[in-house]
Amino acid sequence: MQERFLAQKVRGLTLAENLTDEQLNARPDSDTWSLGMQLDHIAISLEKAVGEMEKSLAKGIPSGDPAAWSPNFFERKFIEMVGARPGGAITPVPKGFEPSEAHLEKEALLSRYAEAHDKFVAVIERTASADLKRIKVASAALPLLKLSLGAWFAAMANHTDYHLEKAARLKP
């Protein structure tokens, strides 16, 4: 999982590296996010997820084999829901997770994007010998929704891939 997030970090930075601020902010239409907005949304989502993970980890980290984690039925459905869905169905973006509508400055955005990935990877490293099933993490969007840490790792990886694909299609 750590390698996947590092690769996602590099992919996002690479998508934007040769773009001007104007290209980064270009929207094909008013209903479609720009490449920069895709990266901003990823950063917001990772930051919020890390915040909730840190709250849960502050209660203690039960040891175990992370490789023993596997999603239950509900977690599998959630992981699927936050990524690309068959038929192009789109899950509504929760309030507070929307990207900025303001002009995004490339350097600030890419710095935030990279930092969000680094913090997420730090949580993965910190839980390298943890029982990912026993650590329950609340959703920043719906606090009553609690999933295992393993489910959040998988969901955020799937979610990030989805938005990176959308960003790649917007690259000029």
Task: Explain the overall architecture.
Strands 1-2 form a two-stranded antiparallel ribbon. The mean pLDDT is 95. It is mainly alpha-helical and 172 residues long. It has six helices and two strands. The protein has one domain (2-170): Up-down Bundle (Four Helix Bundle (Hemerythrin (Met), subunit A)). The protein is globular and about 45 Å long. Helix 1 runs antiparallel to helix 5, helix 1 (2-16) runs parallel beside helix 6 (149-170) and helix 3 packs parallel to helix 5. Helix content is 55%, strand content 3%.
Q: Key features?
A:
172 residues, mainly alpha, Four Helix Bundle (Hemerythrin (Met), subunit A), two-stranded antiparallel ribbon, 6 helices, 2 strands, globular
- pLDDT < 50 stretches: none
Mean pLDDT: 95
Tell me the β content: under 5%
State the CATH superfamily name. Answer: dinb family like domain
Q: Quick one: CATH class?
A: Mainly Alpha
Distance between the termini: 30 Å
User: What integer value in Å does the Rg equal?
Assistant: 16 Å
CATH topology: Four Helix Bundle (Hemerythrin (Met), subunit A)
Helical fraction: 55-70%
Strand order of the largest sheet: 1-2
- Structurally, the number of domains stands at 1
Shape type? globular
Helix and strand element order: HHHHHEEH
Helix-strand category: mainly alpha
Number of E-state strands: 2
